[in-house]
User: Which sequence fits this backbone?
């Protein structure tokens, strides 16, 4: 069964450093998403991406964040200058085209900013 | 008012019993509703989706939707210890301009006891 994959599974970085989280969505899916979950809190939407552009973003997704689909398979989230409060689990998800389509989540990247 | 509300629990049920999980949402324009299961430290895993009023059954799981009351529930029959997890209610409303974000509740922790 096809699945969303993410790398790395864990990332430790120093405050102020740039990090890139990588995702490979399910191959026939066209919508891609990033969510985050701070330890003990709810899953929060960051951004959705369709047709090579951001279709929606949350207030969390400020200028420090960017997303890119550098090739036909990868989808990346870049945090330019990490803060302590960026420590969280970051989930990539993907879905097919229609608005009702289910979003399938990857296993996540646990980011720890020291 | 929280967009998606769930009782955080824990909800404890004996093995073999019916577990009932509830969720209310504030946005009347919400179109699609999902239940995800999340084990500790893992990513959300889809259990059920429901789009129209009424009941939808899939194996031991039944989702119920009442849009007039803005209420979604999940029933788990013959609960097993492996069902012990946090159950996340997620609501989707596609904005006119595109984007498919899911809004999650904080989740209900279910414990199935032997």
Assistant:
């Amino acid at each position: 069964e096809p699945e969303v994959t993410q790398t790395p599974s864990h990332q430790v970085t120093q405050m102020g450093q740039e990090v890139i989280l990588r995702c490979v969505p399910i191959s026939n899916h066209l919508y891609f998403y990033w969510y985050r979950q701070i330890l003990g809190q709810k899953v929060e939407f960051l951004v959705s991406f369709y047709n090579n552009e951001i279709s929606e973003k949350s207030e969390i997704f400020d200028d420090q964040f960017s997303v890119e689909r550098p090739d036909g398979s990868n989808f990346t989230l870049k945090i330019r200058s990490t803060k302590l409060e960026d420590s969280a689990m970051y989930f990539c998800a993907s879905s097919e085209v229609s608005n009702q389509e289910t979003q399938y989540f990857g296993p996540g990247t646990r980011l720890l900013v020291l | 008012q929280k967009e998606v509300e769930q009782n955080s629990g824990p909800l404890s049920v004996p093995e073999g019993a019916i577990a009932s999980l509830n969720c209310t949402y504030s946005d009347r324009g919400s179109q699609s509703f999902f239940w995800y299961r999340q084990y500790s430290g893992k990513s959300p895993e889809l259990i059920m989706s429901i789009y129209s009023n009424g009941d939808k059954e899939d194996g031991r799981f039944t989702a119920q939707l009442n849009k007039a009351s803005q209420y979604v529930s999940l029933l788990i029959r013959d609960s097993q210890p492996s069902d012990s997890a946090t159950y996340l209610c997620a609501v989707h409303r596609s904005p006119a301009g595109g984007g498919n974000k899911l809004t999650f509740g904080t989740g209900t922790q279910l414990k199935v006891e032997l």
